[in-house]
Amino acid sequence: MRTFFSPYVLSAWVALQEKGLSFTLKTRDLDQGEHLQPGWRGYALTQRVPVLETDNFELSESSAIAEYLEERFAPPQWERIYPHDLQKRARARQIQAWLRSDLLPLREERPTDVVFAGAKKRR
């Protein structure tokens, strides 16, 4: 069973799954700061997860990854992850942007590790 404490990693994973792409998942212990270490690929640009590595190209930020996958592995050969209709596709991107920006206070108050790993014991 895979558990994702980052909703951003989860969204990139879902995009890869929905596209039907084969990939290798490399995990990092965020609590230990593994994503901040100089040897980690993806370090130089944003120090964030997820990072997509493909064709000697690295890309971070989950929404950028989803959009890249949609264009690089375009329909009809690959499954569509954004609506075909221009306005509906724009609305989907609007919602993605809203989730990334305006919900951060709620995410900080209710972190996903509580959802996926259970409540932490108070000392």
UniProtKB/TrEMBL annotation:
<dbReference type="GO" id="GO:0006749">
    <property type="term" value="P:glutathione metabolic process"/>
</dbReference>
<dbReference type="InterPro" id="IPR034338">
    <property type="entry name" value="GST_4_C"/>
</dbReference>
<dbReference type="GO" id="GO:0016034">
    <property type="term" value="F:maleylacetoacetate isomerase activity"/>
</dbReference>
<keyword id="KW-0808">Transferase</keyword>
<feature type="domain" description="GST N-terminal">
    <location>
        <begin position="1"/>
        <end position="77"/>
    </location>
</feature>
<dbReference type="Pfam" id="PF14834">
    <property type="entry name" value="GST_C_4"/>
</dbReference>
<protein>
    <submittedName>
        <fullName>Glutathione-S transferase</fullName>
    </submittedName>
</protein>
<dbReference type="GO" id="GO:0004364">
    <property type="term" value="F:glutathione transferase activity"/>
</dbReference>
<dbReference type="Pfam" id="PF13409">
    <property type="entry name" value="GST_N_2"/>
</dbReference>
<dbReference type="InterPro" id="IPR004045">
    <property type="entry name" value="Glutathione_S-Trfase_N"/>
</dbReference>
<dbReference type="GO" id="GO:0006559">
    <property type="term" value="P:L-phenylalanine catabolic process"/>
</dbReference>
<dbReference type="InterPro" id="IPR036249">
    <property type="entry name" value="Thioredoxin-like_sf"/>
</dbReference>
